[in-house]
Amino acid sequence: MSLGIRIFLVYVLFIGLTGYFVLNTVMEEIRPGVRQSTEETLVDTANLMAEILRDDFKAGTLNQNRWPELLKAYGERQPKASIWGLAKNQVNHRIYVTDANGIVVLDSSGVAVGQDYSRWNDVLLTLRGEYGARSSRSDPSDANSSVMHVGAPIRENGQIIGVVTVAKPNSSLQPYVDRTERRLLAYGAGLIGLGLLFGALLSWWLSAALRRLTAYAQAVSEGRRVEVPHYRGGEMEQLATAVEHMRTQLEGKAYVERYVHTLTHELKSPLAAIRGAAELLQGEMPLAQRQRFVSNIDSESVRMQQLIERLLNLAQVEQRQGLEERVGVPLAALVDELLSAQAARIEGKQLRVERAIPVDLELMGEPFLLRQALGNLLENALDFTPANGLLRFGAKRVGEQIEFRLFNLAETIPEYALPRLSERFYSLPRPDSGRKSTGLGLNFVEEVVKLHGGTLSIGNVEGGVEVVISMA
């Protein structure tokens, strides 16, 4: 299981448990909270009615005036109110009055007059001077039929002479409780969903960042040229910087060791030739022979210089992970510049040069490296092209790629040598001198092409050899 999935699962567990605990706690508090608010309203209403009815109750005229008709009319009212989107079309309060003995003397419902309510807590406790309230079921078998009753004392000279009770069925509150619970569940589910989405995005981002860094480390371990991933601050950027620094340190150490070994090995032969020629020159010999040994020393010195320069150029390219600049390089003008630089060799061999490169065709890349790479290709082609031979340059756009071709009239390259032409220090004998080059030119060209994201291929074609470079 990937790290991102594990992080997401832990996040889901945390959000799920937190959401369940919070929602469950709030849901359990909704119903008691609504009932407490309603009970507080009933207390105010009961005390208000106790004051309004006190004088008529003291006079014993509750049933002789308009109170029964008023309470009956109250029970028949239809408010047609809309409370938070819920319709209220009837009143739900029941009001009854009991005397000091708990006998009902007035009832808005008209069903309990004359009955003994002295054992109900709303009457019993109020007559004792305590807070009288109760919740009783109107239907013992129906849990949803409970009714809240709140009593308030009717006083005369500090004595309790009666009780006014205001009752309200809990069922009238249920629509508001249900609506609140639905809205809370909807909002809670939405917040949990947003939290999970955020967690998924966070896990995806973290996994993607780690995958990029892992791919970079894998590519480095395989020797491929890749750029270090870039992050915007934080621990991921520090980790990427640390990995890149480690790669640079390790590669640098291995690179120096390899190049020191290579340079030592490659310099042995020219140094031995120079030393041998120098020892022979210390003795007496004919002038012609002396000049031949001096020429050998000069040619071997040039060979060592070329070897060192090309190794330095190759090392510079191999150590780079990207281009320092990427600009449009006019291909036709670059080829003309290279041909002008090699004009002496071309004229000396009386070579024919053909060019088929559109003037407006441009390669996107680093001008200095492209000039060095194409210059090496031209030098290599001149080494193998016989006198009166042919050089043919061509380039065209193929889709999003630019395809550059260099053909030179030459002998067929042996099959065994084709896969090794761009291998470091591998070289074929030059037809004119029979000597091999440093074997670094084509390797340098291949590194430059790879740095530009392109490909290099060399093969035999009819009449000679053709090099093909494809780059954006």
Automatic annotation (TrEMBL):
Signal peptide limits: none
Localisation per UniProt entry: Membrane
Database matches in SMART domains: HAMP (SM00304), HATPase_c (SM00387), HisKA (SM00388)
InterPro entries named in the record: HAMP_dom, HATPase_C_sf, HATPase_dom, His_kinase_dom, HisK_dim/P_dom, HisK_dim/P_sf, Sensor-like_sf, TCS_sensor_his_kinase
Transmembrane segments: 6-27, 184-206
Gene Ontology MF terms in the entry: protein histidine kinase activity
SUPFAM superfamilies cross-referenced by the UniProt entry: ATPase domain of HSP90 chaperone/DNA topoisomerase II/histidine kinase, Homodimeric domain of signal transducing histidine kinase, Sensory domain-like
Protein name: histidine kinase
Organism: Pseudomonas violetae
